[in-house]
Design a protein that fits this description.
The protein contains eight helices and three strands; from the N terminus they run βββαααααααα. By secondary structure, it is mainly alpha-helical. It has two domains: about 90 residues; about 80 residues, Alpha Horseshoe (Serine Threonine Protein Phosphatase 5, Tetratricopeptide repeat), CATH 1.25.40. This is Tetratricopeptide repeat protein. InterPro entries: TPR-like_helical_dom_sf, TPR_rpt.
Length: about 170
């Protein structure tokens, strides 16, 4: 795990993104426990994923998807449950399909970012860099919040560094 000062901001309480792995990690157990007890389903799922609890995250996500089958954020979280469950290739397949569906919309940058994360997780750092570069450009063009722009910028830097070093 990286130096805590380098962690990338996450929307989930008690969770940050490790800039070396680009995966969520619990950085504040107390805040994560509060998030798990809270009403924010997405935050609860992210905490479970950060703790490596794929089964708990999948169960909670399934319940949430029944209530909100078209919820975009829940669709994205589905992909991370697949990743944590050991099936990142399937997540990549579904994210690419979502990219076709949401191309040209405000969701495209989010999908590009998460595609980058999945490619990074599989070790395809060049593909990850391509996706992070696209997410960064889309976020900058849309005037998205600086935290989102910065997360794309830092993820791109991590992917380019790994690709340049030939890290496997």
């Amino acid at each position: 795990m990286s130096d805590p000062g380098e962690w990338i901001e996450s929307a989930a309480a008690g969770v940050a993104i490790d800039p070396q792995t680009l995966l969520p990690v619990v950085v504040d157990e107390a805040a994560a426990d509060v998030a798990l007890a809270g009403e924010d389903i997405e935050g609860r799922i992210v905490v479970l994923l950060a703790r490596g609890d794929a089964v708990g995250a999948a169960d909670l996500l399934a319940e949430a998807r029944v209530a909100e089958p078209k919820n975009f954020a829940l669709k994205i979280l589905d992909m991370h449950v697949l990743r944590v469950s050991g099936n990142p290739e399937r997540a990549l397949h579904w994210l690419r399909a979502m990219l076709d569906e949401y191309a040209g919309t405000g969701h495209e940058a989010v999908i590009q970012q998460h595609l980058g994360t999945m490619y990074f997780a599989t070790g395809d750092y060049l593909a990850a860099a391509t996706r992070f570069r696209a997410a960064l450009a889309l976020r900058q063009a849309a005037g998205d919040p600086e935290a989102l722009v910065e997360s794309s910028r830092r993820a791109l830097a991590a992917a380019e560094a790994r690709a340049g070093r030939g890290v496997e």
